[in-house]
Write a structure and sequence with these properties.
single chain; 343 residues; alpha/beta; 8-stranded mixed beta sheet; 3-stranded antiparallel beta sheet; 19% strand; globular
Length: 343
């Protein structure tokens, strides 16, 4: 896409977002696919590299900023949303992206993630979910299934896993989506939608770790099964699946989503997807349709609603304070006594 900078139109390509750093993930890792999708999509959007900041925590996914020819911050374990919040508030003119894995974001970083989402900070949060700790060599993570045998759970994990989309919706995130590393076109579309959203955007990416958790998502992402196992959510359309769209999603008597045969229940019983629905209850019900990626699983945008962003509200307060009291004198404040009065 061509981007106009003053009077000069500049056509951006993937190379504009690539660095001279050797990409050092394990051969075959799904992270390569996510990186390529991000670089290609940003080029299509025409966003200048100098207007972008990528903030990461710790883990395999956290290497992402090194490979993006943009501003980047490799922060500390779990704190990427907090660091990124500071960047977004100080520089609202920049596009701020947060990159992390399921361990980084949902274990030590769970607190920071949910508060960034509930505050609706203008961040684009991409969570790589491979259901394992990859960098530290294969311990179970907050998204690993019950019974998962790993180095840290030799008799099988006893922990009930998080559903990341459910967590984001419960935190009142204004944009929530899911995609997977086997479909570049779909990833690019979800990244584009997240970029367009004003406020906190959360995208979960199912990402294969071919060394420590290979094939975790093969049951739904392999080409042979996708039509029966991936439920693509399209705003304004019936929620259907199957090679001949013979199955669909309907609500049962308890308000829960379930898979039904269209011929049995009739088309009028099928849910029509509404990603702009203000209340998150229906989106949450959809997120609970699959407890693990071994059964029909929704992908796409679950929720996209408009709320005031945290940064915009902070700026509004600052402007109101200045109009009411006049500009402050920071130098005088710093050189004042140990106490001061606020009028």
């Amino acid at each position: 896409m061509s981007e106009t900078n003053g009077t000069t139109a500049v056509k951006l390509g993937r190379k504009d977002f690539q660095t001279d750093q050797e990409v050092r993930w394990c051969p075959g890792c799904g992270d390569y696919s996510i990186l390529a999708a991000m670089q290609l999509e940003l080029a299509d959007l025409g966003v200048r590299p100098e207007n972008l900041v990528f903030v990461s925590g710790i883990g395999c996914a956290a290497r992402f900023p090194y490979y993006m020819n943009t501003y980047g911050v490799h922060s500390i374990h779990g704190r990427a949303p907090a660091v990124a919040t500071g960047v977004a508030l100080a520089r609202p003119d920049l596009d701020v992206w947060v990159i992390g894995g399921d361990g980084d974001m949902l274990s030590i970083g769970g607190n920071h993630l949910i508060h960034a989402l509930r505050r609706n900070v203008d961040l684009k949060i991409i969570m790589f979910n491979n259901q394992i700790y990859g960098l530290t060599k294969g311990q179970y993570s907050p998204t690993s299934e019950v019974g998962k045998i790993t180095k840290s759970s030799p008799f099988g994990s006893l922990d009930t896993p998080f559903n990341p989309v459910s967590v984001a919706l419960a935190a009142e995130a204004t944009f929530v989506a899911r995609t997977h590393d086997m479909d570049r076109k779909h990833m690019m579309e979800m990244f584009r939608r997240a970029h367009q959203h004003e406020g906190a955007a959360f995208v979960e990416v199912y990402q294969n770790c071919n060394v420590f958790n290979d094939g975790a998502f093969a049951g739904i992402t392999d080409k042979e099964v996708r039509s029966d196992m991936l439920i693509e959510l399209v705003h304004g359309e019936q929620i259907r699946l199957g090679a001949d769209r013979e199955k669909g999603v309907a609500l049962n008597e308890f308000g829960e989503c379930e898979i039904v045969d269209v011929a049995t229940v009739g088309e009028d019983k099928l849910l029509v997807h509404d990603e702009t629905r203000e209340a998150p209850a229906l989106a949450f019900a959809l997120s609970r349709l699959a407890s693990q990626p071994t059964m029909p699983t929704p992908i796409g945008v679950f929720r996209d609603v408009t709320h005031p962003s945290y940064g915009a509200e902070v700026q509004r307060q600052i402007v109101a304070a200045v109009e009411r009291q006049g500009p402050g004198d920071l130098s005088a404040l710093l050189r004042s006594g140990a106490t001061w009065e606020i009028a």
